[in-house]
Amino acid sequence: MSILPLLLAAAPAAQAARPAAQAQGPGLFGAFFALLLVLGLIVGLAWLLKRMPGSGFRPADGLRVVASLHLGTKERAVVVEVGGLLGVSPGGVTLLHELPEPLPAPEAPRLPNLKELPNFAQLLSQRLRRTR
């Protein structure tokens, strides 16, 4: 008994069961439109989350972190604008010290004066001479 006659008889039945027009994918335009839709959804949800009350994006009223120092993997010391030094750890927040006066405001960063910068070629030649 041979399987070949059975396969030959089943081939036309399989061809008839297949639809005449194969469905094609969305193409390049459809993929680009889907990408824009997903990106728009992400931006829209981020915008909505930012404006919801209780979200973590906005700082609390009356509190501002002036300085922070990491003490360990999960612990840090924080100076808050209300005039206290707080210890922040996974177990909670502890008042470490109350400052008598607020910390001075840090200086605003300045851009370097381009006319006072040293000549790069001279610096490079000096470095190369030192290493030899």
Automatic annotation (TrEMBL):
Which GO terms of type biological process are on file?
Answer: bacterial-type flagellum organization
- Transmembrane spans: 26-49
Q: Which family does it belong to?
A: Belongs to the FliO/MopB family.
Locations listed in the record: Cell membrane; Bacterial flagellum basal body
Q: Does the keyword Cell membrane apply?
A: yes
Q: Does the keyword Cell membrane apply?
A: yes
Using the record, list the residue span of the signal peptide; answer none if the entry has no such feature.
1-16
Gene Ontology CC terms: bacterial-type flagellum basal body; plasma membrane
Q: What is this protein called?
A: Flagellar protein
Which keywords accompany this UniProt record?
Bacterial flagellum, Cell membrane, Cell projection, Cilium, Flagellum, Membrane, Signal, Transmembrane, Transmembrane helix
A Pfam family hit: FliO
